[in-house]
Amino acid sequence: MTTIGDIATFVTSKNAGPFLIALDIVFPDQAIYRRFIDTAALDKQTVARLYGIPETDVIAIIHFDPAHALKVTLRRHTVCGAPGDTDVYGAQQHVPIMQHRIAW
Amino acid sequence: MPDRLTVFAPQGMLGYGIPERSMRLGVARQPDVIAVDAGSIDPGPYYLGAGTSFTNRRAVRHDLSMILDAAHAHAIPVLIGSAGGAGGDVHLDWLIDIYHDICRERGYTFRTARISAEIDRRWLKQRLESGGVAPLDCDRVLTSADIDNATRIVGQMGFEPFMAAIDAGAQVVIAGRAFDPAMMGAHALMQGFDRGLVVHMGKLLECGGAAAYPRHGSDGLLGTIERDSFTVEPPNPDKVCTIQSVAAHSLYERADPYHMHFPGGAIDLTESRFEQASPRAVRISGTRYIAAQRYTIKLEGAAQAGFRTIAIAGVRDPILIAQLDAYIANVRTRVAERYPDGYELHVHVYGRDGVMGSLEPHKATQSHELGLLFDVIAPDPETSAAVLALTRSVALHVTYPGRKGIAGNLAFPFSPSDIQTGAVYTFNIHHLVTIDDPCEPFRMDLIDN
Questions:
Q1: B272 to chain A: which residues are within 8 Å by CB?
Q2: Chain A residues with CB within 8 Å of chain B CB
Q3: For residues B248 and B213, is the Cβ–Cβ distance under 8 A?
Q4: Nearest CB to B137; choose among A19, A60, A84
Q5: Chain A positions in Cβ-Cβ contact with residue B299 (cut-off 8 Å)
């Protein structure tokens, strides 16, 4: 079984301001990027299921052709650095997407 | 008007290190400006609230010395934004103190501008009353009480305060909280280069060498703007800018890769073209500037949320690990018998969901040992310490069904086990405010050194 992490160059997460987390999936070339979008593209419902969050907390999924990349933006369940936060920089929230299994 | 202008960003964050060779090779390209970002909101609200820097004084002094040596030797202007990390006045003066120290030691004199980014509460309340404030990335409406509760409020300045300082003859500009590309692009904007290209180049330069591969270590980036395009290239010969490295960095730390809003407008990357100009350089063209109807700046404020005491401990017993949630619930109940309310108790379980919390898809642990972090936040340090001390002793000694290791449930790595970490802050202001004059909230002073 193939995961997104198997075919992507980078799968990474980081704060986009204190209220949002941006997940970047960068593919090695145009061919793999296009094939991913055509056959296995992520939708909000899938991302919501991977993280166990409401679909409304998946703010956007945007394709960025020049970088062969996909950007997924999530609403943080705890504001950066507030009591109960577990990841101030939001840098370790990428694994559910990295390990997401796709037909390939 | 020159046809080209070169900006050298020797690093992505002042204090994170500058490779000596990259500095030498970058300066050898005869840059017109050295610009560096000295702060970020990413390390969280504490630094803004408490008035300290997340960067280390000794490291900042080292990096700034290298930059000032180059500025002095080659008469290159220097622009620094988001001083001291969070960019409040106390942060700005911390960096200026380091700057003065270096200049005194080396006998340097520069015409220097200090630009404050700290927002006056009365001014902001007037703006609030006139309806000029809107929430950013959240839905909380700003109140007068939020403004009073914030320990410190900063505004993110755009290009114009830097341009005013350059106009006043400053060779070195040290500014509080700033839109990162502003210090990268102020000179280019003054010389009439395309605003869309200036902002896009600044966005790439602000993280230094991060837009080049391989992406490891703190390093620099050179940006050269021409009339219809700009080119970025790392000074480090072991690194390269590729179309992908540069395009991917255009995505970084932003919610929308195609549009980036900033004070006075936005850039639109939908028509941007990325070309490999040389094996190590990428040329970008086509990025468009869209003027905003109103000039807005971002406000950041942090308020005190209490005082924290923590304890760290490990659990190895499989009988306890198998019923961990019931054990933690029992600890909470027993602590609540003595302290019913007036505090927050968080238990982070490393080895299970300590990193992702409720987002963790694997609800059960596979680990034979777990790390527990007990985290108490209370209105005063004494209550915080008292609640944590009780939590720690209850957690150590409380019984649970089937217990065999009756002498204690936890392995503490340290003595003392309880650690008071001081005040806790939260972001209570993250808003946009409309202003008439882009320099209005940002006081500029020329200072002697």
A1: 66
A2: 9-10, 14-20, 22, 24, 26, 50-53, 59-60, 62, 64, 66-69, 71, 73, 77-89, 92-93, 95-96
A3: no
A4: A19
A5: none
Question: ipTM greater than 0.90, yes or no?
Answer: yes
Q: Which long-range contacts (CB under 8 A, 24 or more apart) does B205-208 make?
A: B205/B7, B205/B9, B205/B35, B205/B181, B205/B232, B206/B9, B206/B12, B206/B37, B206/B180, B206/B181, B207/B12, B207/B37, B207/B249, B207/B252, B208/B9, B208/B10, B208/B11, B208/B12, B208/B13, B208/B36, B208/B37
Residue B367 has pLDDT above 80, yes or no: yes
Helix (H, G, I), strand (E, B), or coil: what is residue B124? Answer: helix
- Asked if A93 and B359 come within 8 Å (Cβ–Cβ), the reply is yes
Is residue B257 predicted with pLDDT exceeding 90?
no
User: Looking at the DSSP assignment, which residues form a beta bridge with residue B222?
Assistant: B8, B233
Structure tokens at B117: 């980014």
User: If you measure CA to CA, which chain B residue comes closest to A73?
Assistant: B255
Question: Which residues of chain B are within 8 Å of residue A73 when distances are taken between CB atoms?
Answer: 255-256
The DSSP element (H or E) to which B186 belongs, if any, is helix B180-190
Q: Considering the entire predicted model, what is its pTM?
A: 0.94
Cα dihedral: B163, B167, B170, B171 (round 10):
80
Q: Is the pLDDT of residue B62 over 90?
A: yes
Interatomic CA distance for residues B98 and B119, integer angstroms? 23
